Structures are given as C-alpha cells and as structure tokens.
C-alpha cells in the first residue's frame, strides 16, 4: 500500500510541476493521519512541487514545518490570557520560525464564540507568537 501512495504522490508532484504550481498535503486522514509517515513520504519524494499544509491541531504537526508550503491555524477555544487551549500554537509557530517559513497562515475558527471574535483572537495570538 505504501508504494502505491508513494507512486501516486510522485505523479501528483510531476503534474504540479507541469502546471507550475505546488500541492500541499494536509494532515488528517488516510495516509496523512500519521505525521511521521507524511514526513517520510515528503522526504522520499523530495520535490519542491509537493509539500505540507501544517495544521495547528497537534504538537506532532510541528514536525511538518520544514516541508510547509502553507499553514492552517484551526482554533476552537481560548483561555483568559488569549491562549488557544486545544492546540500548541507556541510549538507550531516556533517550528515555522525555525524552518524559516514566510508563507501565509490561514485561520479557521471552529469554536462556539462569535466567529469574528475567534478569528481576531487567533490573529492576535499568531502575531504575538510570530517573533521569538
């Protein structure tokens, strides 16, 4: 099964190169549910046209930072100090800094509070953590 997925992702990378674009694998389900396997896959393929979308939903996802071509900050809840309580934002931001990532970070607020409030609070947290 691994060789099948590897061949498919190699094909994806060649297709992305042909169309002069980049593809990002987002951690989540299937072959991408295990970060260590995703890292192994990206290392083996070693293409500038195939990378990772680093999701801020688990400390282990920070391992994807060297392969990140996009980052996705999902937020759900904040404590009284404005820290996200369901994901390790400091670890993810530090990993992106260490990997010299300068791309976009999209925000997806999935909490129960007013969406505008959650988005602004997430943006403020990212901004506060952007510098060491």
Description:
The protein has one domain (2-129): TIM Barrel. It is built from four helices and four strands. It has helices spanning 2-18, 35-45, 89-98, 115-129; strands at 23-26, 50-55, 68-75, 105-109. The longest helix has 17 residues, at 2-18. The termini are far apart. The mean pLDDT is 91.
Q: In terms of structural class, how would the helical and strand content be classed?
A: alpha/beta
Tell me the domain tally. Answer: 1
Taking Cα atoms only, what radius of gyration do you get, to the nearest Å?
16 Å
The CATH superfamily title: Divalent-metal-dependent TIM barrel enzymes
How are the secondary structure elements laid out?
Layout: H1 2-18, E1 23-26, H2 35-45, E2 50-55, E3 68-75, H3 89-98, E4 105-109, H4 115-129
Throw out a few tags for this protein:
alpha/beta, single chain, four-stranded parallel beta sheet, 132 residues
